[in-house]
Design a protein that fits this description.
Binding site for GTP: 24-31, 92-96, 146-149
GO biological process, one term: regulation of translational termination
CATH architecture of the largest domain: 3-Layer(aba) Sandwich
Number of domains: 3
Largest sheet: 8 strands, antiparallel
CATH class of the largest domain: Alpha Beta
Pfam families: EF-G_D2 (PF22042), GTP_EFTU (PF00009), RF3_C (PF16658)
Number of helices: 16
Strand order of the largest sheet: 28-25-27-26-30-31-29-32
Organism: Methylocystis bryophila
Bound molecules: guanosine-5'-diphosphate
Main location: cytoplasm
Shape: globular
Structural class: alpha+beta
Strand content: 25-35%
Length: 529
């Protein structure tokens, strides 16, 4: 079903790759679905494996303790499994919205997404937000309407909501046979076949909507209504169109119950058949195609390793082109330095293993001692930088202080390291006052304080600043930018790359300054360079 790829010796391994994430609102069933997908891939023997870890993450205090045992979250950051001749790389995104920055970065490394919707609730706030992030990159989306075994909303209403609130065409591939207590399975329009709730692995052929075998699965009083409804769905909805799907304009919709392991097979089969293989990636100088022979990749996530004493970190890199082989040397474009990829790793549900080779679409963990940071591009020598691992202007700014002045230097270094991991953003005010940290969600502040104490022995405090927001300042005219920054020293700070940010006490005051300085751009997003 896949569009033919350009011929290249690497075409085959690449065309088998499916790199994706699951987007959903908390509680819609992402964890349950992940578990079931992994079971299909044989990646875990025991259902409940993912859940045990996730449940622990749900409360604040448990999250902190689990985060301290870093090994666990490393293992669940990406899960690789094989199914139907494809290699699936499922990239995990944090459940808590305070870590949404992490999620946005992760979505920059996928080629497709599964959108899980609770059939009783429809499109919820977080689903919509994550969808918008996918839309920015035209990521194709397969929809799974979950929990059909419970009270559910009318399927037409749900499809309509997808179309209206997301402005995305919805093409039902299957249609539910009843719902709630009487949910019996799904009918697939294109193949005229039925899957039954407790026999998911068997596809029963029927002659059409009027088939008696179908009627026998429904409560008698629902049969007539169901036939009409399904006929209307078949005729009235958009047919599945691979091109429109790949371009991000249309989503195929499946109905099921992750808990009952129903509908998951259709979903994963659709991912194998329709989801795109690794796509070309936009870099500053040119687009890099997955089939190019030279290895390139970018780091979208960094996680401190299990042993805090050694400051070991794992950088998660998406391979964008070529072939990564263990032991090869790669250039870190930001620093120009060479890095030997001696122990690249693959992750499975429970273990990891050394990756001897990896291809475009794969995600490898690269252990390093702080040489790599989020947004880094690695190549075999070419100077190019991948775009699309953005940084968002923080919504909370705090000055961070330490009681013991002797430790100020150590704090500075610790903050730099943690900012490189993406735990917080770090701003150094130009007026020489103490460092300011910025976060998108308040929970990030707790994580920072806990890690500073546990890993660096630094007891810190936060203080309010008079600033509530900040924007990256830029201008085509370097002189104008300099004079603006010089005139506002007390409200200017440098981020970790030395790029200037302008801090304001309110949106009103920011607007005021922006109007008076039309030559200066104030941006709330910054691409990592
Ligand atoms: P997450 O927050 O999106 O990861 O959601 P979970 O997978 O943890 O599911 C949230 C709750 O919904 C749990 O209690 C699940 O057992 C339940 N759940 C998930 N899928 C289904 C389903 O298909 N049917 C029913 N009845 N419950 C489900």
């Amino acid at each position: 079903m896949n569009a033919p790829l350009p011929k290249s010796p690497l075409t085959d391994p690449i065309s088998r790759r499916r790199t994706f994430a699951i987007i959903s609102h908390p509680d819609a069933g992402k964890t349950t679905l992940t578990e079931k997908l992994l079971l299909f891939g044989g990646a875990i023997q025991l259902a409940g494996e993912v859940r045990a870890k996730r449940n622990a993450q749900q409360t604040r205090s448990d999250w902190m303790s689990i985060e301290r045992e870093r090994g666990i979250s490393v293992v669940t950051s990406v899960m690789t499994f094989e199914y139907a001749g494809c290699v699936f790389n499922l990239l995990d995104t944090p459940g808590h919205e305070d870590f949404s920055e992490d999620t946005y970065r992760t979505l920059s490394a996928v080629d497709a997404a599964v959108m899980v919707i609770d059939a009783a609730k429809g499109i919820e706030a977080r689903t919509r937000k994550l969808f918008e992030v996918c839309r920015l990159r035209d990521i194709p989306i397969v929809t799974f309407i979950n929990k059909l075994d419970r009270e559910a909303r009318d399927p037409f209403e749900l499809l309509d909501e997808i179309e209206k609130t997301l402005a995305l065409d919805a093409a039902p591939v299957t249609w539910p046979l009843s719902r709630g207590k009487t949910f019996a399975g799904t009918y697939r329009f294109a193949t005229k076949s039925v899957r039954r709730l407790d026999k998911d692995d068997e596809e029963l052929k029927v002659s059409g909507l009027d088939d008696e075998k179908l009627a026998a699965l429904l409560p008698p009083f629902e049969v007539e209504g169901w036939r009409e409804e399904a006929a209307l769905a078949e005729e009235g909805s958009k047919p599945f169109d691979l091109k429109a799907f790949r371009e991000g304009h249309l989503t195929p919709v499946f109905f099921g119950s992750a808990l009952r392991n129903f509908g998951v097979r259709d979903l994963i089969d659709a991912m194998a058949a329709y989801a795109p293989p690794p796509r070309g990636q936009e870099a500053d100088k040119r687009q890099v195609e997955a089939s190019e022979p030279k290895m390139t990749g970018f780091v979208f996530k960094i996680q401190a390793n299990m042993d805090p004493n050694h400051r070991d970190r794992i950088a998660f890199m998406r391979v964008c082109s070529g072939k990564l082989t263990r032991g090869m040397k790669a250039k870190v474009v930001r620093t120009g330095k060479s890095l030997s990829l001696n122990a690249p790793q693959f992750f499975f549900a429970r273990d990891r293993s050394i990756a001897d080779e990896a291809y475009a679409g794969d995600v490898v963990g690269l252990p390093n001692h702080g040489v790599l940071r989020i947004g880094d591009t690695l190549t075999e020598g070419e100077d190019l930088v991948f775009r699309g691992v953005p940084s968002f202007a923080p919504e909370i700014l705090r000055r961070i202080t330490i009681g013991d002045a002797m430790k100020a230097k150590k704090l500075k270094e610790a903050l730099r390291q943690l900012a490189e991991e993406g735990v917080v953003q770090l701003f150094t005010p130009r007026d020489g006052s103490g460092a300011i940290v910025g976060v998108v969600g308040a929970l990030q502040l707790d994580v920072l304080a806990t890690r500073l104490a546990a890993e660096y022995g630094l007891e810190t405090k936060y203080e309010q600043t008079r600033f509530t927001l900040c924007r990256w300042a830029s201008s085509e005219d370097k002189n104008k930018l300099k004079s603006f920054l010089d005139a506002n020293t007390t409200a200017v700070a440098d981020d970790i790359d030395g790029d200037p940010v302008f801090m304001a006490s309110s949106a009103f005051s920011l607007n005021y300054d922006a109007e008076r300085n039309p030559a200066i751009g104030f941006s709330d997003v910054k691409d990592y360079q």
